[in-house]
Amino acid sequence: MNLSSNPLVCLCASVTRKAIIHVIKNRGARSIGEVRRLTGANTGCRKCTSKIEQLLAENSDELYQLPVFPND
């Protein structure tokens, strides 16, 4: 398999782009937390957060919006 067609998104947990897309499209993941729970991605350094958010936005049936945190 050509790794460039299925790059690692999360280096800490060795989770690939295709694995994340699979849980979005086939297992109903709609948030970073759900992707984390289903794949183990984003459980280490969390540098992959923006990549996962992008995959959620591109592959979700629903409109994915970044969480909004009110100013304290």
Write the layout of secondary structure elements.
Blueprint: E1 8-10, E2 15-16, H1 17-26, H2 32-39, H3 49-59
Antiparallel strand pairs: 1-2
Helix pairs in contact: 1-3
Quick tags:
single chain, 72 residues, mainly alpha, Arc Repressor Mutant, subunit A, two-stranded antiparallel sheet, 3 helices
Structural features, described:
With 72 residues, the chain is mainly α. The protein has one domain: BFD-like [2Fe-2S]-binding domain (Arc Repressor Mutant, subunit A), CATH 1.10.10. The protein contains three helices and two strands; from the N terminus they run ββααα. It is globular, with a radius of gyration of 12 Å. The relative contact order is 0.19.
For the termini, the CA-CA separation is: 48 Å
Assign the CATH class. Mainly Alpha
Fraction of residues in helix: 40-55%
Rg, alpha carbons = 12 Å
- Looking at the structure, what is the overall shape? globular
CATH homology superfamily:
BFD-like [2Fe-2S]-binding domain
Name the poorly predicted regions: none
Could you tell me the CATH topology label: Arc Repressor Mutant, subunit A
Strand line-up in the sheet with most strands: 1-2
Structural class, judged by helices and strands? mainly alpha
